[in-house]
Specification:
- By secondary structure, the protein is an all-alpha fold.
- The protein has helices at about 20-60, 70-160, 165-255, 260-270, 295-305.
- The longest helix has about 90 residues, at about 165-255.
- The chain is rod-shaped, with a radius of gyration of 62 Å.
Length: about 325
């Protein structure tokens, strides 16, 4: 299949038409717009990554399992540390994305300046060609009119060849010579303009071909740069996923070292309060409990009579002690 090139496919049969050139310029402007849109897209993604990274850094500063002990505490510390590292990596990714966007911006500005010179040069050629074409068409009209004037003068002279008025014949003859000279001058001017226009058209065609080649090279560079920029962008995002997974792997490793048994034993050794539980509370029946008497007959009588008097002497018969237990003072 024959290869297609800009220089072979953007012509027009009308000499003053710039349709092919305008089509190329419109396409290049659309390409420049695409560059700017992708550039802005990458910048916006960079802002998202930066905000996400900063949010993760702030999140890593918050308390998370501050009261935990031993292996779980170490795992939580590693977890927070890696979240902080993930945040830092996203901030670094944001800077890498901005660098790529800046490279695209520099490329776009470089092409813009290069295109500007070509466009200005071609605009000048277009104006020159249009003006020469207009001048040539005007000289053609003048030439045709002068030729008609010459023919009219010659016909008038031929009609009056046999006329007796010599003065009139001289006048017609002078007019014929005058119109002939004018037509010849118009012919030279017309031919000069046609030659100048033809030369200008040839130069314009050469410049048009050069411009097409430059624009085609610009398109090759633009498409290649955009493709590489997007390729780099997705590679950066993929690498970020790999980096995140590597950081999260550290968390998984620390969690593998987390021992439920060790944490329980560590807590027990650190905070234990004793190994003897309290004694059970027993049931006590109210009626089976031995109690001291609340009162006695002796105490009642003593309260009424008062205490017995101590013996005064051994011969005191009133308070003599009787040794016989069967003895009674009651006599019947």
């Amino acid at each position: 299949m024959k290869e297609l090139y800009f220089k072979d496919n953007f012509w027009n049969t009308e000499i003053t038409s710039t349709a092919g050139y305008d089509c190329l310029i419109q396409h290049l402007n659309d390409g420049k717009k695409t560059c700017k849109e992708i550039e802005d897209f990458i910048k916006a993604r960079a802002s998202i990554e930066e905000k996400y990274g900063k949010d993760l850094l702030n999140l890593a500063k918050k308390n998370c399992g501050q009261g935990e002990l031993n292996t779980l505490k170490r795992a939580l510390d590693v977890f927070k540390l890696q979240i902080e590292n993930v945040g830092q990596s996203h901030i670094q990714l944001a800077q890498s994305l901005r660098d790529e966007a800046k490279r695209l911006e520099d490329f776009r500005e470089k092409q813009k300046e290069a295109r500007k010179k070509v466009e200005q040069h071609m605009e000048s050629f277009h104006k020159q060609k249009a003006n020469l074409y207009k001048k040539t068409m005007e000289s053609k009209k003048t030439y045709e009119q002068k030729c008609r004037d010459k023919e009219d003068a010659e016909q008038a002279l031929n009609r009056n060849t046999n006329a007796s008025n010599t003065k009139q014949q001289e006048k017609l003859y002078a007019k014929s010579l005058q119109t002939k000279a004018a037509s010849e001058e118009a012919d030279r001017t017309y031919q000069q303009n046609v030659a100048t226009l033809a030369k200008t058209v040839v130069e314009w065609q050469k410049e048009h071909i050069k411009s097409c080649e430059i624009f085609e090279n610009h398109e090759v560079e633009r498409i290649n740069n955009l493709r590489n920029a997007l390729w780099t962008n997705v590679n950066q995002l993929s690498q970020q996923c790999v980096t995140n997974d590597e950081l999260y792997e550290e968390v998984r490793k620390s969690l593998e070292q987390c021992s439920i048994k060790k944490d329980l034993e560590y807590f027990i050794d650190l905070r234990k309060t004793g190994d003897n539980p309290p004694a059970p509370i027993l049931y006590e029946n109210f009626y089976n409990v031995q109690r001291p008497p609340s009162f006695s007959q002796t105490s009642v009588n003593a309260g009424r009579r008062g205490p017995l008097p101590n013996p005064v002497s051994e011969n005191d018969s009133l308070y003599a002690t009787v040794g016989d237990t069967n003895y009674s003072v009651v006599r019947y």
